[in-house]
Write a structure and sequence with these properties.
heterodimer; A: 193 residues; mainly alpha; 8 helices; B: 314 residues; 2 domains
Chain lengths: 193, 314
């Protein structure tokens, strides 16, 4: 049982990494990966939102939507929950760390539209996970997002100094780098059978 | 009046070209051993990959209006092509070497600005690109030592697919398989000698290769249960199979893509050894060096950031 949970967590962090294997949540991955400090802040904020949103979505689906017989409303309700959690996070960050709030700027409310957040909730439903599994899955997805975002940011800070040919400067070399990193993550394929 | 000079006073006479020539020199025994065991196809691959790499590099420098001869004479493209070519199966069609070499030189190296800027090891990026795109020709190794070109599973693939035979039955009772599968052991020994030569000439420091080999040995020793059917191979098996020694001494020691600080290099090597064992033992792909190296190339800038020495007075 415990080893099943461990495998679920590892699988969500590495093998089915949401950014580099499933290609969800690419907007903040590209948008906030220019400075390490803001990337760490973003990683923490997304970790919090993702975990909390997957817990709340799970509860809302099984204890609200299913008893009321309206499971087809799940996407609307999930987005509402995510927006609420993000708003909560935003208020909290502004109060606790105004500097980080400034640095993150528009990307903090944009966690709402981070497709990974909704993706985790929906995929978790599709897999018919239990409450504990859904929580771990959300945490694993968030952890995978955070790890990849921080590594990618450190790498991008190095690429800024590189002698990149002009047509490939900026977003295009970042996309190519993300692609090469995704190649590396292919190595984890099949680790959990 | 005395001429005023500033430090450094002891100038190194070794430029990039010298280091790269040393690497090529050190790779000769291992390459020769690979050709001896795996056939002339490997030699053809190395030649095709080298020609492609040099041509494309020249074209890139022409396009960027740089001095072609100056940059080509640093031999870095040749080293990339050699490392890629020696890792390709000899029976692979010619376009495998061409496309892998092109991916390595153009995308993994020159889109980032060429030597010194590439975050990923070009040869390994080319190899992984080929392995994912063309898995069939990339995994058909000729049976080592068999001149008739019969393809067979490599020992790592044997081990991966084996579920019924004990280790003793699988290798006919030989511990280090100096039997029908001994080709890989000899190839690895030859690359190990080349690596020791480069270590003696101070081409790289010992940190990354030693920590990688020690971690791989410890991990495999931990999971080795005296050779039952589900065991993962002894430390000796993992050290002298696949591309372990090639990876440990010729690939993870590349100064550009690895961590720079000694502590960082220890972390880097340890993580690669661990990733190699995990992917070899439980992953889909039988050989893991290329994936492990790319993964840690991805992580190297962050390792560097947290292990850099504090500047005095800072």
């Amino acid at each position: 049982m415990l080893s099943d949970y461990f495998i679920l967590l590892i699988s969500a962090v590495l093998i089915n990494n949401f950014v580099l294997v499933q290609f969800l949540g690419l907007c903040p991955f590209m948008g906030v990966s220019t400075k390490l400090e803001s990337a760490i802040g973003m990683a923490a904020a997304t970790f919090f939102v993702l975990t909390l949103a997957s817990i709340c979505s799970h509860l809302a689906y099984y204890y609200l939507l299913v008893p009321l017989g309206v499971p087809y409303l799940r996407i609307i309700i999930f987005i509402l929950i995510i927006a609420g959690v993000v708003q909560f996070t935003e208020i909290y960050v502004r109060k606790v760390n105004p500097l980080l709030y400034k640095v993150l700027g528009i990307f903090l409310p944009l966690i709402t539209t981070n497709c990974a957040v909704l993706g985790v909730a929906l995929i978790s439903l599709n897999k018919q996970q239990t409450f504990v599994e859904a929580t771990l899955y959300g945490m694993g997805a968030a952890l995978g997002f955070a790890v990849v975002l921080i590594l990618f940011t450190a790498l991008r800070e190095r690429i800024i100094a590189a002698d990149v040919p002009r047509p490939f400067k900026g977003a295009s070399i970042s996309m190519i780098t993300a692609g090469l990193a995704a190649l590396a993550f292919m190595g984890f394929a099949g680790l959990t059978r | 009046m005395l001429p005023r000079t500033s430090s450094p006073f002891l100038e190194s006479q070794h430029n990039t070209g010298w280091i790269m020539r040393q690497v090529v020199l050190a790779a000769i025994p291992g390459t020769a051993m690979t050709i001896y065991w795996a056939g002339w196809g490997v030699f053809a691959n190395i030649i095709i990959a080298s020609l492609t790499a040099l041509t494309l590099e020249a074209i890139v420098f022409l396009l960027r209006r740089r001095s072609v001869l100056f940059y080509l004479s640093d031999y870095s493209a040749l080293v990339t092509a050699l490392l890629l070519g020696v890792a390709l199966p000899g029976s692979a069609p010619w376009w495998i070497a061409v496309s892998g070499s092109a991916f390595a030189i153009i995308i993994a190296k020159h889109l980032y600005g060429g030597l010194g800027y590439n975050p990923f090891n070009p040869a390994m990026a080319g190899y992984v690109f080929l392995l994912i795109s063309f898995p069939l020709p990339m995994t058909q190794w000729p049976e080592l030592g068999n001149v008739d070109g019969v393809t067979a599973a490599t020992p790592l693939e044997f081990l991966q697919q084996n579920t019924t035979l004990s280790m003793a039955e699988l290798w006919n009772g030989e511990i280090l398989p100096f039997g029908p599968h001994d080709g890989f052991a000899w190839i690895n020994i030859a690359f190990l000698l080349g690596g020791i030569y480069m270590l003696a000439r101070k081409i790289f420091t010992w940190h990354a290769p030693v920590s990688m080999l020690v971690t791989l040995g410890l991990a495999s020793a931990f999971f080795y249960d005296n050779g039952s059917a589900t065991s993962q191979g002894s430390p000796l098996f993992h050290w002298f199979n696949g591309a372990t020694m090639l990876g440990a001494f010729f690939i993870i020691t590349e100064p550009v893509t690895s961590a720079t600080h000694p502590l960082g290099r220890l972390i880097y090597g340890t993580a690669i050894g661990l990733a190699v064992f995990i992917i070899r033992a439980w992953g889909t792909y039988p050989e893991a060096i290329a994936f492990a190296v790319l993964l840690m190339n991805f992580a190297a800038p962050l390792i560097d950031r947290y292990t850099q020495s504090r500047v005095y007075g800072h």
